[in-house]
From TrEMBL:
Keywords: Ribonucleoprotein, Ribosomal protein. Belongs to the bacterial ribosomal protein bL17 family. One of its GO terms (cellular component) is ribosome. The lineage of its organism: Eukaryota, Fungi, Dikarya, Basidiomycota, Agaricomycotina. This is Ribosomal protein L17. InterPro entries: Ribosomal_bL17 (IPR000456), Ribosomal_bL17_CS (IPR047859), Ribosomal_bL17_sf (IPR036373). SUPFAM superfamilies: Prokaryotic ribosomal protein L17. PROSITE patterns: RIBOSOMAL_L17. It comes from the Eukaryota.
Length: 304
């Protein structure tokens, strides 16, 4: 009977597997975001949780255990000349140990969080062997991918509130104008963040909302028949029907549009049958303004 098997083999011998996990955990704590295969990402996230727990303890035995497991961090290049915090390359010294960051910065960041310091996001398949890719990030940090993606979702769904009040500043803790699923995700992501980080989140959402409106106004809408909607009820637009707006290429995806309108989404829609009882997904690429129109209503698009 086998006992004590709590990790994946990862196709490696024990010494190689331990060195691999030590390297992945050290890189994750140093860069706060790494990309690897999904099985290795799950094992690295599990070990990173234990190491961060040692950092929160802050005792001498915890420091000894962390020191014996972590490898030296990857050497980061000096900041570029375009950076606001320019450092002389001759004076730049890469960190030699992750212990100060672990027992000072990360322990303070996760002081009130009982667990769940990492997040795994699936990232497609690797070219060649088709292995599943994943991105591992430290939550509540500057490189949290979900923080960036969720801010765009809030900006897209909060456009109705922008039209009513003029900005997203009046959003309370209830997050009006968002779907229930997005509200739960926002509460989850911002639960342990301070007021300054919440303000940054709203600024990112407002910036993406402005981008959606500017793109729609700049392109003049999709290329559509410039005729009355009443005429379209009786006849379909032909080759001689006047067109206006921007020409849409096959499978093109615009900002804020569902991935169902991409080339892969169109191919899946053509090959996969819609399950019985489920509403068919509208795969027509549209701008934000067109997507919000009631069902059966078309808009007249004109170029100013």
């Amino acid at each position: 009977m086998k006992h004590g098997i709590s990790q994946r083999k990862l196709g490696r011998m024990p010494a190689h597997r331990i060195a691999l996990l030590r390297n992945l955990v050290s890189a994750l704590l140093h860069h706060e975001s790494i990309k690897t295969t999904l099985p290795k990402a799950k094992e690295a996230a599990k070990m990173a949780e234990k190491i961060i727990t040692l950092g929160k303890k802050g005792t001498n035995p915890a420091k000894s255990k962390a020191m014996s497991y972590l490898m030296p961090p990857h050497n980061s290049p000096p900041p570029s000349a375009s950076s606001s915090t320019m450092i002389d390359p001759e004076d730049f010294v890469a960190p030699k140990s992750l212990l100060p960051k672990l027992f000072n910065d990360l322990s303070k960041r996760y002081e009130s969080r009982p667990g769940g310091y990492t997040r795994i996001l699936k990232f497609g398949k690797r070219q060649g062997d088709n292995a599943p890719h994943a991105i591992v990030t430290l939550v509540d940090g500057p490189r949290d991918v979900k923080f960036e993606l969720l801010a765009r979702t809030v900006g897209k769904e909060g456009l109705d509130l922008i039209e009513e009040t003029g900005s997203l500043d009046n959003i309370s803790e209830g997050w009006e104008g968002l779907t229930e699923k997005t509200k739960r995700q926002v509460e989850k992501v911002l639960k342990y963040r301070n007021d300054q980080e919440k303000k940054v989140f709203k600024d990112k959402a407002r910036e993406f909302a402005d981008y959606l409106q500017a793109e729609e106004a700049g392109y003049g809408g999709l290329r559509a028949p410039n005729v009355s909607p009443n005429v379209l009820k009786y006849r379909k637009p032909g080759m001689n029907t006047p067109k206006s707006g921007r020409l849409l290429h096959a499978g093109e995806r615009l900002s804020g549009v569902s991935t169902h309108s991409t080339g892969l989404g169109l191919a899946r829609g053509a090959l996969v049958r819609t399950p019985r009882g489920r509403k068919e997904v509208d795969r027509n690429p549209r701008f934000w303004g067109q997507a919000r129109l009631p069902e059966g209503v078309t808009a007249e698009l004109t170029v100013d």
